[in-house]
Structure to design on (772 residues):
């Protein structure tokens, strides 16, 4: 809902007011003047490619020391951003990325750590495996080369997963680490990609996820059992945790569907909450992550991606505009006008600096917006994926269903699979490789 | 860093063999660490390799943590060391008091605290410490989930005794603080029945009055409406029970008629922005639940939201209309 303070200011409404003052759209963006692409609401692809390339090849300033335990994430955020921008690394740099990731595999515990020699942890494990999905596919032009995928120790990884499992169906993120839905999502996404999903692994997990749903409709970070079938959610409904919980739920539903009388989420409340996270015109239709908090570009994906997860859950194949429940055109305004940084990269909001995390989650949100709810009569001169048409969310879109770049004046990004935040091509290649050629019994 | 003393030059460290992060090649996206960080991280890798658990490991891990509080391996190794050498955990908790305030948004400071609390098992002073951190950030997610864990895990009646007063203070400071509203719901409805709260009829009545008064003061507050919805659903009370209360909020200021003081149905404040979209949404839900002819009334309200009072979510209101009509036809 639009934020109105009822002439009763409190700290929340005061910071809301000062944020709105920063969210301005250049007025009017006229093509005749010498405005920059950002001032005109166009995605400045070259500027962002420069930002990503600079960080990848030249390195990251010392303030990124706070990410020293998230090194696979730095690679994933930048390489998946490039994938969305339809840029592939050359073979040499792909190899470099794969070697860097494999050096972070923890040979005693299994799984991956936040850097070489760091303890195994579910979050960097997800980022590592997704990075390998992007850079590690067997090279068809070199049939004798060995794919980095063969070097993932799946048996050790599966034992790590089991060792982190808790009696209530949840998982710790690392040995003695915390329990939360981020870890559960990361584990399930990796288990799906690497064909490690078993009933034993996920017994009780759905119940625990359901326990995280709050009275508002969104999900909390975790839940604590307080008696027979009763759960106390720890923390309020939150965009990031809601994405993780819903994606985890859908991954489980696709593998082990609930009967209609079985365990269900409250989808009505979830949809209402998700929709209400989208701000109004004065917030350039950006998403906030919690009720009465400020909009932030990263929720473009954490909330924006949830609508595609719901499509998957409810079996909608081709979402036409009339089925849409949120405002994807609006979200693009936030990303293009507020989240793009004039020096490249994307961000939370002005006047903040960009970073790799916000660059990816803004771009992923933009992609979700572009592939959602396009008017059925939109015509497009080119398919979104010039090289791989199977990158569309359903693999069966026709050109006429693709977003029109002339209408939005934004170059069309690659589509991203909401279950993993990887392109369909990368998901399909990795899943079929681990399904068909390298099935191991546990 | 001219005055930084490297570990190689410190007494008592000469037996440790530091290990560099990368053994060969130039990595992608390298971080330009400071020399100090590189030094301490190299010694940490050296220590982990030998598996040493000793007093000096506490010194080393504290050093890393101060430079990078998200270094979960250092935290994990520190915890194992504390246990292995049977260290004074109360002293460790004191150190955490300082680190938690400086690194409020780091997962690890709060998780480490939880691990310590599982050993120390003295949760009551923790509540006061947490309250202090809310002066810095009253919506910090980690702090709130830590407090809720503490309460639900130890579940001691002395622990719960002041919780409702505490929430009320925070809501008094900022009635839009959704974290505090969630905590209220957690305390009253989602953590069992506490001392003095056994009369559930009375508790329910109290909560409804509280949330209605809050809405009356600041009608356009999504946190309060969500709380109202939550309380009703949790207690299986139909939304229609609130219709007398909600109706005035769906009308413009000039159509307000209430002059009587009605505690059960407090009217919107004179400074409120009306009509209130959240109230219109609520009233539409009442009509939708009634079904039949009322569905058309619901449809009209959804239309007014989409076209006038909440245009930003137009597609959602159109969806609600479609769903409503679909239900009506089946």
């Amino acid at each position: 809902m639009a934020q109105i303070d009822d002439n009763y200011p409190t700290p929340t409404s005061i910071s809301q007011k000062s944020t709105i003052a920063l969210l301005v759209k250049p007025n009017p963006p006229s093509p005749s003047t010498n405005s920059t692409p950002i001032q005109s609401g166009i995605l400045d692809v070259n500027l962002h490619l420069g930002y990503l390339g600079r960080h990848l090849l030249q390195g990251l300033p010392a303030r990124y020391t706070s990410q020293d335990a998230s090194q696979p994430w730095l690679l994933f955020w930048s390489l998946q951003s490039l994938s969305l921008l339809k840029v592939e690394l050359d073979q040499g740099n792909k190899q470099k990325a794969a070697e860097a990731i494999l050096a972070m595999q923890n040979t005693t515990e299994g799984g991956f750590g936040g850097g070489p020699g760091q303890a195994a942890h579910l979050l960097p494990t997800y980022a590592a495996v997704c990075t390998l999905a992007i850079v590690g596919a067997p090279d068809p032009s070199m049939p004798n080369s060995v794919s980095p995928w063969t070097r993932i120790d799946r048996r050790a990884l599966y034992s790590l997963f089991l060792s982190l499992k808790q009696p209530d169906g949840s998982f710790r993120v690392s040995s003695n680490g915390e329990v939360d839905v981020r870890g559960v999502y990361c584990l399930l996404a990796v288990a799906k990609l690497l064909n490690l999903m078993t009933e034993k692994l996920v017994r009780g997990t759905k119940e625990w996820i359901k326990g995280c749903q709050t009275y508002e409709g969104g999900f909390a970070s975790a839940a604590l059992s307080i008696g027979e079938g009763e759960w106390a959610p720890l923390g309020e409904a939150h965009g990031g945790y809601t994405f993780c919980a819903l994606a985890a739920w859908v991954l489980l539903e696709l593998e082990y569907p609930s009967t209609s009388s079985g365990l269900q989420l409250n989808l009505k409340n979830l949809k209402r909450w998700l929709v209400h996270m989208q701000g109004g015109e004065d917030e350039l239709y950006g998403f906030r992550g919690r009720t009465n908090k400020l909009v932030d570009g990263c929720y473009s994906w954490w909330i924006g991606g949830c609508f595609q997860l719901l499509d998957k859950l409810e079996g909608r194949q081709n979402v036409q505009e009339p089925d849409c429940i949120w405002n994807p055109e609006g979200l693009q305004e936030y990303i293009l006008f507020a989240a793009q940084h004039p020096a490249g990269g994307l961000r939370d909001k002005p006047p903040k600096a960009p970073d790799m995390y916000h660059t990816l989650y803004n771009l992923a949100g933009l992609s979700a917006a572009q592939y959602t709810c396009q008017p059925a009569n939109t015509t497009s001169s080119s398919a979104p994926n010039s090289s791989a048409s199977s990158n569309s969310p359903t693999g069966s879109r026709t050109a006429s269903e693709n977003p029109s770049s002339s209408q939005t004046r934004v170059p069309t990004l690659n589509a991203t699979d909401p279950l993993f935040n990887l392109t369909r091509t990368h998901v399909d290649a990795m899943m079929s490789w681990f399904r068909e050629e390298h099935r191991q019994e546990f | 860093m001219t005055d930084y003393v490297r570990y190689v030059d410190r007494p008592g460290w000469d037996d440790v063999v530091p290990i560099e992060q990368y053994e060969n090649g130039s990595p992608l996206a390298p971080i330009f660490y400071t020399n100090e960080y590189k030094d301490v991280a190299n010694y940490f890798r050296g220590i982990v390799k030998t598996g040493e658990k000793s007093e000096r490991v506490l010194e080393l891990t504290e050093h890393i943590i101060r430079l990078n509080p998200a270094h979960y391996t250092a935290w994990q190794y520190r915890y194992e060391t504390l246990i292995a050498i049977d260290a004074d955990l109360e002293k460790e908790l004191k150190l955490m008091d300082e680190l938690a305030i400086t690194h409020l948004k780091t997962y690890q400071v709060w998780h480490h605290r939880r691990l310590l609390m599982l050993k120390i098992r003295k949760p009551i002073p923790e509540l006061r410490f947490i309250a202090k951190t809310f002066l810095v950030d009253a919506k910090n997610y980690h702090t709130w989930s830590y407090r809720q864990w503490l309460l639900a895990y130890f579940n001691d009646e002395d622990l719960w005794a002041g919780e409702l007063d505490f929430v009320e203070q925070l809501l008094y400071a900022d009635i839009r603080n959704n974290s505090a509203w969630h905590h209220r719901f957690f305390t009253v409805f989602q953590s069992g029945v506490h001392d003095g709260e056994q009369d559930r009829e009375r508790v329910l009545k109290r909560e409804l009055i509280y949330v209605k008064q809050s809405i009356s003061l600041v009608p356009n507050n999504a946190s309060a409406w969500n709380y109202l919805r939550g309380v009703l659903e949790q207690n299986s009370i139909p939304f229609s029970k609130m219709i007398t209360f909600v109706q005035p909020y769906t009308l413009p200021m000039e159509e307000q008629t209430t002059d009587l003081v009605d505690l059960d149905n407090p009217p919107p404040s004179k400074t409120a922005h009306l009509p209130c979209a959240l109230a219109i949404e609520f009233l539409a839900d009442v009509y939708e639940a009634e079904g039949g002819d009322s569905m058309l009334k619901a449809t009209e309200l959804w239309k007014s939201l989409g076209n006038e009072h909440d245009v930003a979510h137009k597609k959602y209101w159109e969806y609600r209309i479609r769903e409503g009509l679909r239900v009506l036809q089946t």
